[in-house]
Amino acid sequence: MILGPDRVIACPHCGFLARQHTLISGNTFGAILWSDGKREAPMLPEFPAVAKCHGCKRFYWVNGAEVKGEIELFGDKSKHVPKEWECAEPIEHLTIDEYIEALDSGVGTDVEKQRYLRVHFWWAVNDIVRGDSNAQIPTRYLQELKENLGRLSALLDERDPKDKIMKAEIARETGDFAQAVHLLGDVPANFRWVADKIMELSKKKNSSVTQLRPD
Ligand SMILES: [Zn+2]
After folding, report:
1. What is the mean pLDDT of residues 52-78?
2. Do residues 73 and 7 both lie within one domain?
3. 181 located within any domain
């Protein structure tokens, strides 16, 4: 994995600076795939697409923010960069509560953005129980999660095999095992092993997020 320079960006609402890490190259070595579609790849980290500004506390999309400059991580340290760039804090992934807040704020202005927020909200909730069979999703998130998954499912396009599998996973995690099995019955061969794993879990009436491994 080769990290690129940090990019210094400005909040489009108030101009407050933040830092975004960049990647020159990475790979999926040692990656873990989960049934909800989250891939944890140590050599290919996913940087946040949405940020909560530390200045004005509003949300914005990293791609749409003005780039003020770059800070080399390993280059010539004597190369002068403004002090306020150095002080800019790295952008973090939103917390569960922040995803809820972001969705309410209307920052998800189109289908792709809505989808990003809803998928990442789901993953953030699943992170609580991911790989830990003793953990439980706090009851305060259950209603919000259910509503979110219903809306996310409506955004997915069954003609796309990845979307179809995600839709089936949502059905499985919300206890609609028959619908999950139905959706997974017909997916192209290159997605078959993932579909088969989720199908197996659905038939066992298992609704937990699960790590998927090819046989
Ligand atoms: Zn701001």
Report:
1. 91
2. yes
3. yes
Where is the domain boundary, 50, 70, 90? 90
pLDDT at 78: 63
Domain that includes residue 47, residue range: 2-90
Tell me how far the alpha carbon of residue 205 lies from the centroid of ligand 1, in angstroms. Answer: 45
Q: Is residue 212 part of a domain?
A: no
Give the pLDDT band (50/70/90) at residue 134: very high
Strand partners, 188: none
Structure tokens at 119: 């998928």
- 81 C-alpha to ligand 1 centroid (Å): 21
60/10 Cα distance (integer angstroms): 10
* Secondary structure letter of residue 208 according to DSSP: S
CA dihedral of 28, 32, 37, 41, whole degrees rounded to 10: -40
C-alpha 59 – ligand 1 centre gap (Å): 8
> Which of residues 193 and 77 earns the better pLDDT score?
193
Average pLDDT taken over every residue of the chain: 95
- Checking if the pLDDT of 19 tops 80, the result is yes
If you measure from the C-alpha of residue 10 to the centroid of ligand 1, how many angstroms do you get, rounded to a whole number?
8
Tell me, in angstroms, the distance from the centre of ligand 1 to residue 18's CA: 10
Q: Report how many domains make up the chain.
A: 2
Q: What integer pLDDT is reported at residue 122 of this predicted model?
A: 98
Give the Å distance between the CA of 22 and the centre of ligand 1.
Answer: 21
Whether residues 128 and 81 fall in one domain: no
CA 89 to ligand 1 center in whole angstroms? 13
Return the number of other C-beta atoms located less than 10 Å from residue 159's C-beta. 7
